[in-house]
Design a protein that fits this description.
Radius of gyration of chain B: 65 Å
Helix content of chain A: 40-55%
Strand order of the largest sheet of chain A: 4-3-5-1-6
Largest sheet of chain B: 5 strands, mixed
CATH class of the largest domain in chain B: Alpha Beta
Largest sheet of chain A: 5 strands, mixed
Radius of gyration of chain A: 19 Å
Helix content of chain B: 55-70%
Strand order of the largest sheet of chain B: 6-8-9-11-10
CATH superfamily of the largest domain in chain A: Periplasmic binding protein-like II
Number of helices of chain A: 5
Shape of chain B: elongated
Oligomer: heterodimer
Chain lengths: 154, 536
């Protein structure tokens, strides 16, 4: 009985870190996404469906005529995966295939992918018509946060 | 067919030019077209590979920039018909024991049409595929490009080739004409000059300004003509001298010929005279034989006439005595004897008369030269007796057995009886001569020998054959071919003219269209065969 208790203590010591890591992963994947846009061309707020349509590549230009430039986190990053699951509700592979198809059609430019949110924000802040999605806080002061269905994140 | 040098050169150049033209018009454009297509295929293949690489990078690194650049580059190609992204899906069966790969066309640019992944290249379309493989998916880029630009470029090449070919043809023909003019004209001039030289015009000269072999040939030809002219002049001079010499020699020869001709004419006249004399001698010899025979024939009845006349003279003397004595019975007997003798005298006188008349008849007939129906058997028999008795008249010791075999069917035949008689007499005289010679030899050597001469006649279809045979020594083979030659004789000098058989041969062959030949066996005898046609 004592031995059993001892074994259970040892398992607890082993499982706890794993559970912690899993919880962090789940947290990060489930963390909310923020959409930022360049001050030129990008509207202040969008609906979820509009956002999805834009990120599917269906809208090549903004209302002011400026070109839509999409920025996303690479699908190898948590942010990228989170974007696929939350925004596209598809796997990273399917989203990649989608953009491959869109790029082949050549209607609009394919998204620009980044390894870090900072790089993404910086790009969006400095590229006219650029709109980006990432998970994290907005640090770039020159970019504006686009409200999605009236919310800063979703 | 005559083909001139000019034509040959033109044809040669034309053939070469045509070969070049065909090469530049057909082979060269074909080669260029294939190279163009190969290069274009390679270029399209590279574009497909670039897009495939871009797709691979885009899929693995979410970097679509390269893909876009590649696509933008490809889209710039006006001949682009489509770009297709094909996903290779591996589909396993339910128990995961086997799988198959299926092509799934994901996207096509432009989107208006869809293209099967099994599409292959054709004359109007080049299809190139480039595979890619990533962790996300496997697939390939299929690029379809029109060959319109290639075809346009091929057309341009063909047009260029046509122009080049035309230029080559034109230049080639000009070169051909120039060559033919530069070669054939001097050659034709040479030919004309050579022809004139051949016709005897040694003043011909070829004018050639070219410094090549033809020019050298013209110079050599001119030199040759000059040499020939010199030689010809020399030869002509020599010929004149020769002709002069020949003329003088001819003159001398003509004189000699005339002299010789005169001599020959004299010789011929002498010869003809001699021949005439010989023929005459032969005739005289025959006549002698004939005369001897005739003399014998007449002598015989004359002997009877003389003998009986002498007997009658003696009987008349006895008759006178018996009349004086009065023995009437004896007188009657003597008168009867006288009558009988007188009958015999008349008989033999008539016989002599008949002989003479026959001779006269023969001579009259012969003198006309007209062939008349003649009883060959009678003629042969008559001349047999004449010949035999003629020989016996000369040589009383000669005896021979005479055999005759006359074919009664022979009848009469149109001949010159005197000539045929002379032939028979001649052959019989020879026969008697050889049997006499052999008899003399036999007597000297005390051999038993019975000289025999045979005469036979035979009717054979349309000819009459007279065979005169002896059992003499025969004729040697070496002289057999010569016996009918004039003046050939085996008799001792003075006994034969050598014209008997020759004349006989002419009488039979030329005079009567018949044949005279001899069959002989040495030591056994000879048979002369006379064949006379009924229609001569």
């Amino acid at each position: 009985m004592l031995e059993l208790i001892h074994q259970s203590k040892q398992m607890k010591n082993f499982l706890l870190p794993i559970l912690f890591l899993l919880s962090i992963t789940v947290y990060s994947q489930n963390s909310e996404l923020t959409v930022i846009g360049n001050k030129k061309g990008v509207p202040a707020q969008l609906s979820t469906s509009n956002l999805k349509s834009i990120f599917m590549g269906n809208q090549p230009k903004w209302n002011d005529g400026s070109k839509v430039v999409i920025a996303m986190m690479k699908f190898t990053t948590d942010g990228g995966k989170n974007t696929c699951s939350k925004l596209y509700q598809k796997s990273t592979t399917d989203v990649t295939k989608h953009w491959l198809t869109v790029s082949m059609k050549g209607v609009i430019d394919a998204p620009v992918f980044f390894n870090t949110a900072a790089e993404l924000q910086n790009f969006v802040a400095n590229t006219a018509g650029a709109i980006g999605v990432f998970d994290g806080t907005v640090t770039a002061s020159t970019a504006k946060t686009v409200l999605i269905d009236g919310k800063t994140s979703f | 067919m005559f083909i001139g040098v000019k034509t040959k050169i033109l044809l040669t150049v034309l053939a070469i030019v045509l070969l070049f033209t065909i090469f530049s018009l057909v082979y060269f454009p074909s080669l260029q077209g294939r190279a163009l297509r190969t290069n274009y295929q390679s270029e399209v293949q590279n574009q497909a590979k670039t897009i495939a690489l871009g797709a691979s990078i885009a899929l693995s690194e979410q970097n679509f920039k390269g893909l876009k650049t590649a696509m933008d580059f490809v889209k710039e190609n006006e001949e682009l018909r489509f770009v297709t992204l094909i996903q290779k899906d591996t589909i396993w069966n339910t128990d995961s024991s086997s799988y198959k790969v299926e092509d799934n066309v994901m996207v096509t640019f432009p989107e208006e049409n869809t293209y099967s992944s099994n599409l292959v290249s054709s004359d109007s379309l080049i299809i190139m595929k480039a595979p890619f493989r990533t962790s996300i998916m496997d697939g390939e880029i299929m690029l379809g490009v029109s060959t319109k630009s290639i075809n346009i470029r091929q057309k341009k090449i063909r047009m260029t080739a046509l122009l080049i070919s035309g230029a080559i043809f034109l230049v080639g023909m000009l070169i051909g004409l120039w060559l033919s003019r530069n070669i054939s004209h001097p050659v034709q001039a040479l030919r004309k000059a050579a022809k004139r030289v051949g016709e005897g015009d040694l003043t011909s000269e070829v004018k050639s300004s070219s410094k090549d072999e033809i020019g050298e040939l013209a110079v050599a030809f001119n030199n040759m003509v000059k040499d020939i002219k010199k030689l010809s002049d020399l030869t002509l001079e020599q010929e004149k001298e020769k002709q002069h010499l020949l003329a003088s020699q001819n003159e001398a020869l003509e004189k000699q010929v005339e002299e010789r001709t005169a001599e020959l004419r004299q010789s011929l006249e002498n010869l003809q005279a001699t021949q005439t004399q010989l023929v005459q001698a032969e005739k005289m010899a025959s006549l002698g034989e004939l005369t001897a025979g005739i003399a014998h024939e007449i002598q015989n009845p004359l002997n009877f006439v003389n003998n009986f006349s002498e007997v009658n003279a003696e009987l008349l003397v006895e008759l006178e005595e018996e009349l004086n004595n009065g023995n009437h019975e004896e007188v009657k007997q003597l008168i009867q004897d006288l009558k009988d003798n007188e009958i015999k005298i008349v008989h033999h006188g008539k016989r002599a008369d008949t002989i003479v008349k026959n001779m006269l008849q023969h001579s009259r007939t012969n003198s006309t030269g007209v062939k008349e129906p003649t009883d060959i058997n009678a003629l042969a028999d008559e001349y047999l007796r004449l010949a035999y008795h003629g020989l016996r008249a000369k040589n009383k010791s000669f005896n021979a057995t005479l055999k005759t075999d006359y074919d009664e069917a022979v009848g009469k035949i149109n001949v010159l009886s005197q000539d045929i008689g002379r032939v028979i007499l001649n052959l019989l005289t020879n026969a008697f001569y050889v049997v006499n010679e052999k008899s003399s030899s036999a007597k000297a050597s005390e051999d038993k020998y019975e000289p025999t001469v045979s005469v036979s006649t035979k009717k054979k279809d349309d000819i009459v054959e007279i065979r005169i045979s002896d059992n003499g020594n025969g004729i040697p083979q070496k002289v057999l071919d010569k016996i009918f030659q004039p003046f050939f004789t085996t008799k001792p000098t003075g006994q034969g003219t050598g014209l008997g058989l020759s004349l006989s041969y002419d009488i039979i062959s030329k005079g009567h269209g018949g044949e005279l030949r001899a069959e002989t066996k040495e030591g056994e005898g000879t048979t002369f065969i006379v064949q006379l046609p009924y229609k001569s």
